[in-house]
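Quick question: what would this complex look like in 3D?
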Amino acid sequence: MMTQPRYKTTVFCAALLSAALLLLPNPSAAQDVPEGYSVSSMTRATIFVRDLDESLKLYRDLLGLTTRVDTIVEGPRINEIIGTEDYGLKAVILQAGDSIIGNIGIYEIIGDDREPLPPPSSRSDTVTGDFAVVFITDDIDGITEKVKAAGYPLVSPPMVLFPNPEAEVQTREMMFRDHDGVLVNLIELGLPRPW
Amino acid sequence: MVRVNRTTLKNLGGGLMTAALFLGAVPVTAQDDSSVTPLIERVTPTSNPTVFQDGMNVAPLARATIFVRDIEASLKLYRDILGLRPMFDNYWKGSGINAIMGTDGLELRATVLMAGESVSGNLGIYQLHNDETTPPPSTQTPDTRTGDFALVFPTNDIHRLTAEITAAGYPIVSPPVPLIIREEYAEQPVEMMFRDPDGVLVNLVQAGVLK
């Protein structure tokens, strides 16, 4: 139970609200739900990270995703949605090109003093309960070198999952863990492409 | 001829019915000991191939994958309630799949669900088999914690979905509420959040109606 509010709603001033209005994705701009469905493709997977700057080093600086949103959200409404009281949220949303689907949310809860979830896994195998983000890349070897140099725990170097005797170039993939233990799976498609 | 062995059949669990319905459930084997058994016919999106935009070495997130505790429980939510449909549903065995996962001797049922036909923004529901380790309990608290993961889906039917999700007993983090009141809207954009059986947060977002 919290006794000391960290971010009082009084600081949720008009200027901040205006900034949030400009910076948060406008929900009306979301893509249409396809005919016959109740939801559309995932707009983003969001990680509630332990250290936002560390996460940006990977997803923005190393993988090269670009910043779509970078803001701080405070006040009762965001707390209602995330089921908390009086916290703030640093929210960065990264995208590849201008796509509004398949983005990555990097969110840090400001001043979170509750009992933390178990520490992130750095194990080199995959276990039940793991969460993975999967990206197609055209530079698996270049990115792998950078990932190794930066010291992220490698689960697998680039490898052929299932050799296709008819392929001119085999599809390869690699996997590693990010700063929060999230698995990052990169796939470089072979020729001909499987899809 | 369907050459799924007894162990595979046992491990498939609820997927067996699906496998039995798909007459093409023939394992494809590689030169090594790897095999993959398609449990359904794969849907291959053709309308939106993966593209790398200028200066990008990665494409938009192809999928987020959850290594679930019970694939049938996950499918009840994502397929039956949220209405996503399978792109593929494969059963993997052998050294290739273990090498990429950094494991030894495990088998994997891998289902990918999508809304429409898309190569981006899909959801992987994967279950490890032959895994003798006990997974940690899933987070089921009604508040968001550092270390959580969330999947964000736009919807056009948030109130009906919320009623179904609530009736099914998933922990609700927030009912549908507006994040920001926008004066230009007659009906505000709203979002709600709940936890899936593995504790993954699911955030549904519905666009508003302009005045």
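Answer marked as accepted. The longest strand of chain A covers residues 66-73.
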